Amino acid sequence: MELTALGLGLLGVALAEPASRMLAAARWPGRDPVVALLLWQAVGLGGGISLFGAGLAYGLSPMGDSLPSATAAFAVSVANGVWPPVMDPLHVGALLIALGVLIRLLSVLVITTMRTLRARRRHRDLLDVLATPWPHASGTRVLDHPVPVAYCLPGRSSRLVVSAGVLDTLDTAGVVAVLAHERAHLRERHDLVVLPFVAWGATAPFVRGMVCAQLAVARLIEMRADDVARKLCDPTELATALKEVGGSAPAAALSSFTDALEARIDRITAPPAPLPVVVRWLVRLVALALVVVPLALLLVH
Amino acid sequence: MSGVTSLGELERAVMNVLWETDRDMTAREVQDQLADRDLATTTVLTVLGRLERKQLVHRIRDGRAHHYRPVASREDHVAELMSDALDDASDRGAALARFLGTMSDEERSRLRDLLG
């Protein structure tokens, strides 16, 4: 099982670092954000399974030839009150590290979720008292502030918000276009799409690949929301609205951010050619393999 | 202008009364300010209770009377919402707020580092 552990460890590291960086830098995801987001989920999940599995497999390798049999042998032995002598500190250490990382990841996920839910409830309470309904679109509220901001508050009781600054900058059609984009975030629960990557980033912020993954996923959900909005309203209307609201930001605004916005706007008016069907299926297969292969290595042997 | 108004709408109306009045108010005084809505005192008390639970108003006991006071000004709360929305947007995509507006220097440099 040491070989399995080595293989899984290499796969996990490869996914967390070079693969994440390469995928974050690649250009094709912009041609099909949905397929790319699927691949990202597989990279995150497969990477997690591989790294955790590697520690588990190495730690339990003295106990048997496969993870299920080794786990059973270890459990039986411990249940009988006998510590298996083959379980030396090195293997026990590997086991503890694997479990520690898993517990850390899960607790970060739980804490992040709880904190987010609490902050959202507070934000919603304030919004309901402060923001006034916007008559031109149902479920939209206006916050009286001159800085142009449009955003959505996800959750079961979601809210769409535009600031007065947005209404000053855009005409009704423009605001509707921006809202179509926000509504896509809400309907497709993009907050849940980013959640695993936020947890990974918070668990291991020192791994640059994780940070790249977070940024890439955030960029992709914006593109996806643009794609949805473009089908619901006039693309040039959407592009103009984004440009005008974005353009009212101070000139000092971060250049790479405005670059990213510019690239997004170009993408709306001149969408890139969609990925060939074969490539789309290939990516889906790779995504499936990234999750199935490490699981199979661990469980079937 | 009564009957079908939602609780959320009433909460907004009561907060507006408290914000526009420069002193602590009793439920009765709030009710009087909203006389055109024809609200029952219990309704006003319910709304004030909800606002207190949401930490939007303080209840101050003064002898046998209870006075209510906004926890913060409307402007402070709007600023809180705006900074929430902007923070989330710069928080490595943790939330979905997009900021089309201003960023602080610190946020900007953090984002620049990340995108570097």
Automatic annotation (TrEMBL), chain A:
It comes from Pseudonocardia ammonioxydans. The chain crosses the membrane at residues 40-60, 92-114, 281-300. GO terms for molecular function: metal ion binding; metalloendopeptidase activity. This is Zn-dependent protease with chaperone function. Residues 132-196 form the Peptidase M48 domain. The lineage of its organism: Bacteria, Bacillati, Actinomycetota, Actinomycetes, Pseudonocardiales. Binds 1 zinc ion per subunit. Gene3D superfamilies: Metalloproteases ('zincins'), catalytic domain. It comes from the Bacteria. Its cofactor is Zn(2+).
Automatic annotation (TrEMBL), chain B:
GO terms for molecular function: DNA binding. It comes from the Bacteria. The keyword Iron does not apply. GO terms for biological process: negative regulation of DNA-templated transcription. The keyword Transmembrane helix does not apply. SUPFAM superfamilies: Winged helix' DNA-binding domain. Keywords: DNA-binding, Transcription, Transcription regulation. It holds the Pfam family Penicillinase_R. Belongs to the BlaI transcriptional regulatory family. This is Predicted transcriptional regulator. It comes from Pseudonocardia ammonioxydans.
